[in-house]
Amino acid sequence: MSYKADTSNGTIEKGFTYGLSQSLTIAIGYAPVAITFGILATQFGLTFWEAGLMSLFVYAGASQFIAIEMIHQGATPLMIGVTTLILNIRHFIMSLSVVPYFPERSLPWSLGLAQGLTDETFVLNTKVLKNVEGEENRRRVMLGINLGAYATWVSFTILGGIIGKWLPIQFSGFQFALLALFIILTTSSLSKKNYLTYILAAALAVFLKLLIPGKIYLIISVVVAAGIGAWWRGKKASESVGCDSQKSI
Amino acid sequence: MSIQLLETVLLMTIVTYGSRVLPFLLFKGKNVKGFARDFIELVPIALLAALVVPELITPNGTIVIVNNPFLWAGILTFLFSKFVPNLFLGILFGMSVFWGLDKLLV
């Protein structure tokens, strides 16, 4: 694979500052979600700096929300780790499709650029990097994009944590906040292509929760439902060759 | 910071950063296809189901339908977010409805 710059798109030298300015669109999206995370994390018993550290180290929105819900439900660190792994393994795919832009990358660049990869920065980087000439410039642009998004996520988490500390704890609605968040995410990601997996996972989870003590039902139901869903897609794809069977999570 | 939380953050960091950095360290780059890709794509929706539905249907360990503020608040939040696709408003709506139902259904 080779990525040639699109020369029709201007010849301005693009670097770190260009990337940083591009990251603004992500920052606008991240800020309210990060504030929400900070508030909820403190409502669920974390301090604002613990919430900030989680954003700094983990830096993966959905899994952070899920982690505080699981901590709240009493899951063990190992269970949360495994759940995070099966959720965030998708970064592996995004990372795989970004590395061809940087064939000459050094170790520090590899270690640094990798941490900034999220669903949102991946989409933006893929769009922007196509039009940047030269690997050196592409690295700087990606660094700018990643750093802008990363800094927003971490700083607004801390801000949310500080706000959350001052909110009244007594409001019983807060125990529903994370569930509401997940339900809203469900509404926006449920589609004709995945609703059977959703129903299967839900039924399995309810059944196994009543059957097995502890939180292991989460992992079993997710792996089994996604496994059957993927197998089914593969089967349908091989039956109707040429038909695009994937997309939309 | 409790040891449990430290362990949690550490494990989450290892698996997440690991997924991000391994291709940078090991590969020239290619696309994952077939079963693995479909599986990874379906994990988030399956996880949403497994996290939410049992909490709504069995809040206290047994199946409750009528006197269950979680279930009704969940259904109403789902319907609300269908029409108002805004994260923040949706959470506010869900929390308020839950709070109201929690008072009513006791």
Automatic annotation (TrEMBL), chain A:
| UniProt keyword annotations, A-Z | Cell membrane, Membrane, Transmembrane, Transmembrane helix, Transport
| Any single biological process term in GO | L-valine transmembrane transport
Q: How does it sit in the membrane?
A: Multi-pass membrane protein
The regions listed as transmembrane in this protein's record are 20-41, 53-72, 78-102, 143-163, 169-188, 216-232
- According to its record, what are the GO cellular component terms? plasma membrane
Indicate where this protein resides in the cell: Cell membrane
Main subcellular location of this protein, as a coarse class: membrane
List the PANTHER family.
INNER MEMBRANE PROTEIN YGAZ (PTHR34979:SF1)
Q: Tell me its family.
A: Belongs to the AzlC family.
Q: What is this protein called?
A: 4-azaleucine resistance probable transporter AzlC
UniProtKB/TrEMBL annotation, chain B:
Give the InterPro entries listed for this entry: Brnchd-chn_aa_trnsp_AzlD (IPR008407)
The protein's name: Branched-chain amino acid transport protein
Q: Which parts of the chain span the membrane according to its record?
A: 6-27, 39-58, 70-101
Q: What keywords appear on the UniProt entry?
A: Membrane, Transmembrane, Transmembrane helix
